[in-house]
Amino acid sequence: MIYDISYEFNYEFKNNLYLMEDKQTMKITAKIILLQQIKFKQKMMYTRANYFGLTHSSVLECSQELDNLLNKYQGI
Question: What pTM does this model have?
Answer without folding.
Answer: 0.69
